[in-house]
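forwarding from the other thread:

> can someone predict this with glutamic acid?

sure thing
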Amino acid sequence: MDNPANSNACGRFAPSPTGPLHLGSLVTAMASYLDIKSDNGRLWLRIEDSDSQRSKANFIGLIKQQLIDHGIIWDTWPNPDNKKEGVIYQSERRRIYSYFMHFLISTERTFLCSCTRKSLLKQGDLTEYLKSGEIKYPQICRNRKSGNLSHEKALRFKSTDGDDFVIRRLTTGDFSYAFTVVVDDYLQGVTKIVRGDDLKFTINRNRQIQAILGFPFPKILHVPVVRDSNGKKLSKADKHSKLRGGEFIKKQIIESWTHLRENMPVSWIEKVTPTYETFFN
Ligand code: GLU
């Protein structure tokens, strides 16, 4: 195999520790791994624990072990201050996000918002839903001249398509996925994002922030999510979908590969098959 030092390709697997990994997460992890290793690149592991309410520290060790058990070995993020196995934790990066947030604010593309989910639901006819299931923000605070800072709930982005999404929730201080993912993919030199197709709806959000911050657009490959027999996407919160250990590992690896073979373009499968055969047989 060629020396990875000769390749600039970087990918990442970026789980949120809101539960143990399930088959759908394994499919995405495997696709990320195969894609970047077949380009002779490096794969970072990024723990997306920026949502302080839903992330649970006890799942982090479990997720790492599940990845190792299934042969997904990440590369060490070369940060000398990071003593945690070369992994990035979003919960430790608020100062970095804050720096980029202030830059966004200076471009006048953000606004303070005092709406809550409850107040938005009360908007009746104005309450529209996005494909993601989120409420489409009805632009109530977009053009407000001033506000009382202690009543503000969020900092939102003035989107070109009317989808004014959250950058930071001011009640918890948490930064949103649409924003942190852009900052981290840039700072980690990610050249190719491989993620579940349930996140397709964030492309436009990501691209707008990238354009303003002057970041390059990484390539993106979306992987069809795994659904249960009722057509429902597997969820980390559902205890029954958790990956199993021991004798089940081999079966789960084969199931993930089968899902990829059946759902990904033939040209991609042809590209990654030699890597699959080298690492997972
Ligand atoms: N943190 C997200 C999740 O666990 C994945 C984000 C990504 O791959 O960009 O669903």
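The two ends are 17 Å apart (CA to CA). thats all i got for now
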